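Researcher: Here's my situation. A collaborator sent me these components and asked whether they could plausibly form a single complex. I don't have experimental data yet, so a predicted model of the whole assembly would be a useful starting point for our discussion.
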Amino acid sequence: MNKITNNKAWFLVLPVFFIVAISAIIPLMTVVNYSVQDIFDPQTRFFVGTEWFEQVLGDSRLHDALIRQIIYTLSVLFIEIPLGIAVALTLPRKGWGVSASMVLLALPLLIPWNVVGTIWQIFGRADIGLGGYVINLLGIDYNYSQNPMDAWVTVLVMDVWHWTSLIVLLCYAGLRSIPDAYYQAAKIDGASRWAVFRFIQLPKMQSVLVIGVLLRFMDSFMIYTEPFVLTGGGPGNATTFLSQFLTRMAVGQFDLGPAAAFSLVYFLIILLVCWVFYTVVMNAGKREEQ
Amino acid sequence: MARIDLKSLAHSYFPDPKSDEDYALRRMEHVWEDGGAYALLGPSGCGKTTLLNIISGLLTPSHGQVLFDGKDVTHLAPEDRNIAQVFQFPVIYDTMTVYENLAFPLRNRGVDEKRVDARVREIAGMLDLTGKLKQKARGLGADEKQTISLGRGLVRDDVSAILFDEPLTVIDPHLKWVLRRKLKEIHNKLRPTMVYVTHDQVEALTFADKVVVMYGGKVVQLGTPQELFENPAHTFVGYFIGSPGMNIMDCKIDDGAAWIDGQRIGLSDRHLDAVSKQSGKIELGIRPEFLTLETGTAAKGADGVEVNIIKVEDLGQYKIATTRFGASEIKVKLGEDEQVIGQSGILRFAPEWTKLYADSQLVA
C-alpha cells in the first residue's frame, strides 16, 4: 500500500507546541541553563558542568530537609488515606445528608492555601487562638513557635484538615459506583461487614485510591505555602521542607546555580516516585488478571 | 427446601397508598409448592422483581406475610432466610479466584473445608468451570462471570429456595440455551424450590413447571405452560404468551352469536350462558393456531367470516397470514404446506378454542 505523505498536518500541532513550549519547556530549559553555569550578569557567565549538582547533593542541610520531607509525606499518606476511606464509608448514601456532607467536606478544599496557613497560625496560638488556648488549659504545654514537636504536629494536623476531604470525596465517588446488587449478593452470601469491605468496597476503590495517593504524594512533597505562613519553617529548621529550603536558596541567598540544580533533582525525585508507584500498582493489577 | 406461602401480600413504595395505582404489587394469595420450579413472567415494571425481592427479604412488604414452610419470615433479613439469589448482572468478587468465589457463601457459614471443596467441585463440574477454578475472576468474560454467579446461587444445598432475577440477560444466545438446560437438569436432580424472574416467554415456558404471569402489579394467571396456552385467564396472557399472541377483538353478543364489525361468529351454548351474566367490555379471543383459512376454490360457499389477506410470512416451519375484515386484523398460523391463493378467503373459528373475555377476564 502506498502511504500518502502529507506534512501539512504538522502545522495543526503547532499551536499546542507553542503553548507547551511557553508553559513548560522554555521555563524548564532556563532552569537547566542556570544549573550548569555560574552567571553574574548577562555578559559574565562561566560553564561549571556538574559542580552545582555535586555541591547540592553533598549539602547536609539539604539531606536534613529531604529526610524531614520524606517523614512528613509518609505521615500525611498514612494518616489521610485510611482516615479518608473510613470517613467515606460512614457518609450517608441518600437523602439531604449527602449534599450537606459534600458541602462540608468541600469547604477546606476551597480555602486558599495561605489562608489555611493563617487560619491555623491564629487558631494554634496559645494567647489568642482558640485551639492553642484550650490545649494549654488542658494542662499541655503547647507552643508551635517554640517547640519543634508542637510545630510538626500542627503542620500535620493542618494538612490532614485541609486534604483528607479530597481522599474522602474520591473514595465516596468510588463507593457510589458499586451497584446495589453487590451489597445484596454479599448479604445473601452471608458476608461479614469486614468481608464486604475487603472483597467489594476496597477492590472497587482501588483506581481512585491510586489517583488519591499520587495527588497527595505530589502535593505534600511540594508543600510550601501553609508551613511557610504557619511556622516559617521553624522553630529553627524543624519544619523546613524541600520547597522552602529551595526558595531560601534561590530568592533569599540568590544562589541561582545551586537552586536550579536542586530544582531539577527535586523534579526528578517526584517524577521517579510517581512513575515507580504507578507502574507497580498497574502491573500488580495486570498480573492478577492472568 | 421449602414451600412458600404468600399471605394477603401487597406492596407499595409509597408510605400511604390510596388507589390501586399506588401499589407496585396488588394483594395476592398464593402457595408455591416445595420443590417446584416457578417462573415469574411479565413485561418490565409489572412487579415481578418487587415480588422476588420480597421473597428474598431485600424488601419488606408493606402488607401481608411471607411464610417458608409455615414459618413467618416477613421481617427476616436475607441472610437469615436461608435463600440464594442470582442477579441480573454478574456479581463476582474481583480479587478472588473462581474457586474462592464459589466457596464464599459456604465459608461465610463456617462449612468445613472438605465439604466446601466437594460442593465447589461438584457445582463447577455441572457448570463447566472446572478448568477455570484457579483463575482470578476479574479477567473473565461476562458469560463466565454470570456462570460463577449462578454457581454461587447453587453451591449451598440447604437453602429454602433459589431465586433468579433474569439471570441470563447478559449471556449470549447459544450459552443461554445451554445454561437453561443445566438449570432444568439441576432442578430435576436436586428438586430445590426455584423462582425465576424473566420477561422472555420461551425462557419461562422451558424452565418452569408453573408460570406466574404478572401484569400491572397483579398475578393474572398461575398455571402450567399448557394451561397458559390453551386457556389464558386474561387477555394479557393470551397476548403475551404465544408467538404471535392471541387475536383479541371487541365484539357484541346478539342473536346467539358474537358480532365483530357486522360479521357473525358462531358461539356454543356454554359461551352464551356465561356471557349472559356479564356486563362490561366483551372481547373475543382466539389463538392463531386455532383458526383455519380457506382460499381459492375451497373458499367457495364455505361457512365462516370473509376476510382480505394482507400478507403471508413464511417462517420456515410455519406461515403467518395477516388478514383483515372491518377494523380487525387477525393473524392465522398455517402449516408449511398450506397454500394461500388470491387476496381474500374465508376464516373459520374453532368454537372450542374461541374465548370470551369480559373486562379482560376470561368468562368462557
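Model: Some features of this prediction you could bring to your collaborator: Chain B has a mean pLDDT of 86. The first strand of chain B starts at residue 4 and ends at 12.
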